[in-house]
Amino acid sequence: MTFFRFLAIGLLTGTVMADQAHAALPVHSQAPSFTLPASLGGNTFSFSLTDALKKGPVVLYFYPAAFTPGCTIEAHDFAEAMDQFHALGATVIGVSMDKIATLKKFSTSECRSRFAVAADTNGAVATQYDARTPDATYAARISYVITPDDRIIMSYEDRKSDKHVEKALAALQTWRQTHPE
């Protein structure tokens, strides 16, 4: 990846998203169902939100582009927290508009084979979740927690990657208090 791509993505996600006026899908709204090609540990499969929700809540996070600095940090943060997510019965899936070949590598190196990442190459799912940058080139950095009844209980948008894991874990912990396994 070239320096100029890093710079362009940084400028796009840093300055343009800071001015973004729209909000992510609201809490309590129904989560749109989707199926996307995904990779976990370099192995590809078809990720279905409907199927994942049958096992428990899902943390769905959108990120601009694999192997960029902020997205790499965020993937590391999610990977480090996977034991906590599993203890809460949650599945984590990251979604970007990258190609699946790129995500196969990203899933092993940056996600450390701990959670799956999915390829939304045409941005259709990001659009359903109001998770596109204003120029529609990348996914915006937005995280959701979705319960097995298809309801969004947390919607968090911040171009910085440092609070997404913390916010998702807090939402799951609160939900678990009233929904023990």
UniProtKB/TrEMBL annotation:
Q: Which UniProt keywords apply?
A: Antioxidant, Disulfide bond, Oxidoreductase, Peroxidase, Redox-active center, Signal
The chemistry this enzyme catalyses reads: a hydroperoxide + [thioredoxin]-dithiol = an alcohol + [thioredoxin]-disulfide + H2O
- A Pfam family the protein falls into: AhpC-TSA
What is the top-level taxon of the source organism? Bacteria
Give residue ranges for domain Thioredoxin: 25-174
Q: Does the keyword Disulfide bond apply?
A: yes
The secretion signal range is 1-23
* CDD domains reported for this sequence: PRX_BCP
Q: EC number(s)?
A: 1.11.1.24
Q: Which PROSITE patterns match?
A: THIOREDOXIN_2
What job does this protein perform? Answer: Thiol-specific peroxidase that catalyzes the reduction of hydrogen peroxide and organic hydroperoxides to water and alcohols, respectively. Plays a role in cell protection against oxidative stress by detoxifying peroxides and as sensor of hydrogen peroxide-mediated signaling events.
Under the heading PANTHER family, the entry gives: AHPC_TSA FAMILY PROTEIN (PTHR42801:SF4), THIOREDOXIN-DEPENDENT PEROXIDE REDUCTASE (PTHR42801)
The entry's family comment says:
Belongs to the peroxiredoxin family. BCP/PrxQ subfamily.
| Name used for this protein in its record | thioredoxin-dependent peroxiredoxin
